[in-house]
Amino acid sequence: MSQLASSAPFRVAMAQVNPLIGDIHGNTSLVLETAQLALQQEAHMVVFPELTLTGYSPEDLLLRPGLDGRIFTALERICAARLPLYLVLGYPGRQEGELYNMLAVIHEGQIIGRYRKQRLPNYQVFDEKRYFKKGGEALLLSIAGMRMAFSICEDLWDKTVMQQAAVLGARLMININGSPYHRNKVRERRALLQQRVLEGGMPLIYVNQVGGQDELVFDGASMALDIDGRVQVQAPQFAEALSLVDLQLEPPSAAVPGMAVGQQAPLLERDAELYEALVLGLRDYVNKNRFSGVVLGLSGGIDSALTLALAVDALGAERVQAVMMPFEHTSAMSLEDAQLQATTLAVDYRVIPIAPAYEAFMEMLAGEFAGRPSDLSEQNLQ
């Protein structure tokens, strides 16, 4: 493997990207474009998230018979670019008839290493044992004088994979992820990764996917921790990013590489974190399904006001249409507040009274309601 001058840092670009589930060709283009950006930033290595080529999680798309061929073509395309840096990315790969959650390390057109995920999550939203066979072997590569180990997401939620790498002489762990968000998740990850660093005695680079996919939101928040468990580089939450990590092996006999302080995106407070998760989830649900925009009802109340703000922040006012549907119980204040909300956020606003539709339903159901006292049924019709 290539060597660097002892005084020169080895630069790793953490590619916090937002792939589209199932769009293998488009995701491959995303990998190549991002790798070029990493080269412009003088990176020696670019690291992508788990299952980048398919997006995470592809679920039953993994069962389609044409998947293997499309993945093979994607890897060939990346190799054909012969990029002058190390490229680490995740993909579903088949070996000896079995499908694995895999990682490849590519350098100047050659796949120089492959890794198979050892710990398969099978709880909550995860169902990996349905699709993948687990691996059992570590991957260590000597790159720029460093013994690097590689792992995938859940591998680090169990201490044995880090210990396995340490026993084999690893001096740096690179971990790729498709880790979805829940409240306070980034702080939970930090605590866990700090524990793994101290157990394994080596720095750690953690790269996570960002974006929304159906009911899941991936928050990114990739990070790099030094040998003491300090977060020296923190990528932003809920946004794509290419964050740089500078590793220094000085002197060459040093036990582990040093790590320079880099980007320090601030972690969001609780309410801001929840809001950004909702915005990202909505934006990607609409855009990835190629919807032109959204229509939502305003009542003049707090719930619909918050929904309107989320929609505008996610999509822009020009892609949001608000509708007020007043009835006999609608107050003048509700009408005024709904109008003010729409005007403030500059969205298209329409008032469509529902009395004619309600009366038509009541006439249609008159026979069914005859002789019965009025109750919630009439209210629910509106």
What does this structure look like?
This protein is of the alpha/beta class and 382 residues long. The protein folds into two domains: 10-268, Carbon-nitrogen hydrolase (Nitrilase/N-carbamoyl-D-aminoacid amidohydrolase); 274-381, HUPs (Rossmann fold, 3-Layer(aba) Sandwich). Helix content is 32%, strand content 26%. The chain is built from ten helices and 18 strands. It has helices at 24-40, 67-80, 159-167, 185-200, 270-288, 302-315, 332-344, 355-364, 366-369, 376-381; strands at 10-16, 45-47, 86-95, 98-107, 110-116, 140-143, 146-152, 172-177, 204-208, 210-213, 216-219, 223-225, 231-234, 241-248, 258-259, 294-298, 320-324, 348-351. The strands form four sheets. The chain has a seven-stranded mixed sheet with strand order 5-4-3-2-1-14-15, with helices on one face. Helix 1 links the parallel strand 1 and strand 2 (45-47). Helix 1 packs parallel to helix 2 (67-80), helix 3 packs parallel to helix 4 (185-200) and helix 5 packs across helix 6 (302-315). It is elongated. The termini are far apart.
Strand content: 25-35%
Q: Tell me the structural class.
A: alpha/beta
Give the number of helices.
Answer: 10
SSE arrangement, N to C: EHEHEEEEEHEHEEEEEEEHEHEHEHHH
Spatial strand arrangement across the major sheet: 5-4-3-2-1-14-15
Give the assembly state of these chains: single chain
How many structural units, i.e. domains? 2
Q: Indicate the low-confidence ranges by residue numbers.
A: none
